[in-house]
Design a protein that fits this description.
- The complex is a heterodimer of chains A (242) and B (261).
- Chain A has a single domain, classed as Metal-dependent hydrolases (TIM Barrel), CATH 3.20.20.140.
- Chain A contains 10 helices and 7 strands.
- Chain A has a 7-stranded parallel sheet.
- In chain A, helix 3 packs parallel to helix 4 and helix 4 runs parallel beside helix 5.
- Chain A starts with a strand and ends in a 6-residue tail after the last helix.
- Chain B is of the alpha/beta class and 261 residues long.
- Chain B has one domain: Alpha-Beta Barrel (TIM Barrel), CATH 3.20.20.
- In chain B, helix 5 runs parallel beside helix 7.
- Classes of the chains: A alpha/beta (242), B alpha/beta (261).
- The interface between A and B is large, with 43 and 37 residues.
Chain lengths: 242, 261
C-alpha cells in the first residue's frame, strides 16, 4: 500500500489531458490514497479551487484534500481553513511559494504557516534548491508547525538533508520530474527515516518518476513501508491500518 | 519485495538502443564516477542491449582523448550485469557500444576538425553539451556545427532547451535528437518537429501522464542518461505507457537504429 502525499486534482496549462487517468494510474502503482490540492487553487484562485475540490472530494473515497492557502490572501485562508478542515475531507494545507511569489522566508508566508500551526494540521510547502533551508528555519521558529518539504528541494536535495536534520518537525517527499542518480538513496541514508514520505506530483507528473526513483534506492523492507504509508498515517493521523 | 518493486511493472521490456549514455563524471556534483565498466553493467542490469555512448571527458576537458576513450569501447562488451537496486531486473547480457563523437561548441573550428577526424573512423553521431559548455542556441558555433553534421547526414544528439535549440538545426534536413525535452516544453517540440522530419526527442524527461502518448511514436527514442540519471524511470514510464507493443519496440530501439542507419 502507498499513500501519495503530493498530488493534484484539476487541469494543467501544459500540453496534456489527464482527466481520465487518475484512478487507473493509482491502481497501477499501488497507491491506495492520494492527498490532493486543486490546481486552480494552487495556480490562480485559492478559494475557488478549494470550493471545487471540496465538492469533488465528496464523490471520491480514495482522495483527501489540502486546503490551499495563498499567503497574500490571509482572510481567505482563515475562512477556508475554518470551513474545510472540520469536514474531515481535508488533511492539511498546501502552500506554493512560486505561484504566489511568496518565498518561505517572506512575512506573509511566515504568518500563513503560523496559522497552519494553530490549525494543527501539516503543511505541504513547495521547495526548490536552498529554499528548503528557509523552511527548516521557519518551522523551527514556529511552535507546533509540521511541514512537508515538497520535492525535497528538487536538485537541491543535499539542502533537504541539512534541513531535515535541523528541524525534527520537517518531513521530506521526493517528487521531481528529473531523476538524478542516487538522489533518494542519499537522502534515505542521511535523514531520520520516520520523516520520509512518498509523493508523486500526479497528475502533473506520472508516478513512474517518483516510484522509479524510490525503487532505484533499493530500500530495506522496513524503511520502504515507512515511506510508502506508515509515516503518512502518523503525520496526518489517518485511520488506516495495514 | 517492497511496495516500490518496479520489476513487475517493467516486465520483460528490453531496450535495444539507448541514445543517451555517458562515461565519465561531473566534477561539479556528487554523481557516480561513470567508469565504462560500471556504466555497461548498469545498462545490462536494466536490459539495455545497446547504447550511444559519449564522453564527459570530451565534453568538459579534452575532446580528442575523451572521444578516443569511447572509440576504444566500440563493439559488444561484457556478458553479465547486475540489476539496478530495487528494480527487480537482473538479466545478464552484453551491451553493444555505439561510440558518439563529442565536440566542443566553445571551439567551432576545432569542432569541425574533430568531426572530420571522427567520420572516417566510422562515427555516425555527434553529441552537443551546450549547457555544460555555457553555449547558447544563438551562438554562431551551433549553426556552424549543425551545418557540418547535416552535410554528412550525421545524427546530432543535443542537450539544451528544445525551445531554443531547434532553431540552429532548422531548414538543414538535419537528423537531431533533443535529449533534454521536458514535458513542460512538449508543445514547442511538436510544432517545431512538424516541419522537420529529422527531429526526434528523447523520452527521458517526458514524464507527464500523457507525453509519450502525445508525440508521434516514430519521433520518440529511448534515452536514460545512464549513469547520471536513474534508468528505471524512463523504463517504467515506457513500459506502462499507452503505446502499442509495436510502438514500444520502436521507441525502445527501432527508431534509433533507423536514425543511426
Amino acid at each position: 500500500m502507498i499513500i501519495d502525499v503530493h498530488a493534484h486534482w484539476g487541469p494543467w496549462f501544459f500540453t496534456m489531458d489527464v482527466a481520465g487517468a487518475n484512478l487507473a494510474t493509482m491502481d497501477r502503482y499501488g497507491i491506495a490514497l492520494s492527498i490532493v490540492s486543486a490546481t486552480e487553487a494552487v495556480i490562480y484562485d485559492a478559494p475557488a479551487g478549494n470550493r471545487a475540490l471540496a465538492e469533488w472530494l465528496a464523490t471520491s473515497e480514495r482522495h483527501l484534500g489540502y486546503v490551499t492557502i495563498n499567503p497574500r490572501r490571509q482572510a481567505d485562508a482563515e475562512r477556508d481553513l475554518r470551513e474545510y478542515l472540520p469536514t474531515g475531507r481535508f488533511a492539511g494545507v498546501k502552500i506554493h511559494t512560486d505561484y504566489t511569489r511568496s518565498p518561505v522566508s517572506s512575512p506573509q508566508t511566515r504568518e500563513a504557516l503560523a496559522m497552519v500551526a494553530e490549525a494543527g494540521v501539516p503543511a505541504l510547502v513547495h521547495t526548490w534548491g536552498a529554499t528548503v533551508l528557509d523552511l527548516a528555519e521557519v518551522c523551527e521558529s514556529t511552535p507546533g508547525l509540521r511541514v512537508i518539504a515538497g520535492h525535497m528541494g528538487a536538485d537541491g536535495y543535499p539542502y533537504a538533508i541539512e534541513a531535515a536534520n535541523a528541524c525534527d518537525r520537517l518531513y521530506l517527499e521526493p517528487c521531481y520530474s528529473h531523476a538524478p542518480a542516487g538522489r533518494v538513496s542519499r537522502v534515505a541514508a542521511a535523514v531520520d527515516r520516520t520523516r520520509l514520505l512518498f509523493g508523486t506530483d500526479s497528475t502533473l507528473i506520472d508516478p513512474a518518476s517518483a516510484f522509479g526513483a524510490v525503487a532505484a534506492a533499493g530500500l530495506d523492507a522496513e524503511t520502504a513501508e515507512l515511506i510508502a504509508w506508515r509515516n503518512a498515517v502518523r503525520l496526518f493521523d489517518l485511520d488506516i491500518t495495514a | 519485495m517492497t511496495a516500490f518493486d518496479a520489476g513487475g511493472l517493467v516486465g520483460e521490456l528490453e531496450v535495444t538502443f539507448d541514445v543517451d549514455v555517458l562515461v565519465g563524471a561531473y566534477p561539479d556534483r556528487d554523481g557516480p564516477p561513470g567508469t565504462p565498466e560500471s556504466v555497461l553493467a548498469a545498462l545490462a542490469g536494466h536490459r539495455v542491449r545497446a547504447g550511444a555512448v559519449a564522453s564527459l571527458r570530451a565534453a568538459l576537458f579534452d575532446v580528442r582523448s575523451g572521444n578516443d576513450e569511447v572509440l576504444s569501447l566500440r563493439g559488444t562488451i561484457g556478458d553479465s550485469g547486475s540489476g539496478g537496486a530495487g528494480t527487480g531486473r537482473d538479466a545478464a547480457g552484453a551491451v553493444d557500444v555505439i561510440p558518439v563523437g563529442t565536440v566542443d561548441l566553445r571551439d567551432p573550428i576545432g569542432a569541425v576538425r574533430e568531426i572530420d577526424r571522427l567520420e572516417p573512423l566510422g562515427v555516425r553521431a555527434i553529441r552537443l553539451f551546450p549547457d555544460e559548455q555555457g553555449v547558447e542556441a544563438g551562438f554562431p558555433s551551433v549553426r556552424h556545427v549543425a551545418r557540418r553534421a547535416a552535410l554528412s547526414g550525421l545524427v546530432v544528439l543535443t542537450g539544451g532547451d528544445v525551445r531554443r535549440f531547434w532553431q540552429p538545426f532548422s531548414g538543414l534536413e538535419a537528423k537531431v535528437v533533443f535529449l533534454d525535452t521536458h514535458f513542460y516544453h512538449l508543445g514547442d517540440f511538436l510544432v517545431a518537429a512538424a516541419d522537420e522530419p529529422g527531429f526526434h526527442t528523447s523520452t527521458r524527461l517526458l514524464n507527464s501522464p500523457d507525453a509519450l502518448e502525445t508525440v508521434p511514436a516514430d519521433r520518440l527514442v529511448f534515452g536514460s542518461r545512464t549513469p547520471h540519471y536513474e534508468p528505471i524511470v524512463p523504463l517504467l514510464r515506457l513500459a506502462t505507457s499507452g503505446l502499442t507493443p509495436d510502438e514500444v519496440a520502436a521507441v525502445a530501439g527501432g527508431n534509433a537504429r533507423r536514425l543511426f542507419g
